[in-house]
Design goal:
Elements: E1 4-9, E2 18-23, E3 29-40, E4 46-54, H1 57-69
């Protein structure tokens, strides 16, 4: 919905914990997140739901372009 992120990682995060997600694109794009919760998946990784807490306009535009391109 543009306000939340769903990521898969090796470590669970407690609800409310701040996190940073850095996308490996050029130049790198860092997203400031606050986690909503984690759920263990069948493969042992964790599905982490998070809310994007700060996303400047230029970063929002880059993220929207990345999603639109399907990359």
């Amino acid at each position: 919905d543009g306000e939340r992120a769903l990521i898969v990682c090796q470590t669970p995060f407690a609800p409310g914990k701040p996190a940073t997600l850095t996308l490996a694109i050029e130049p790198p794009l860092a997203l400031a997140l606050k986690t909503i919760g984690s759920k263990r998946r069948a493969d042992g990784t964790f599905e982490v739901r998070a809310r994007i807490v700060m996303l400047p306009r230029d970063a929002r535009d880059r993220l929207a372009a990345l999603v639109a391109s399907g990359s």
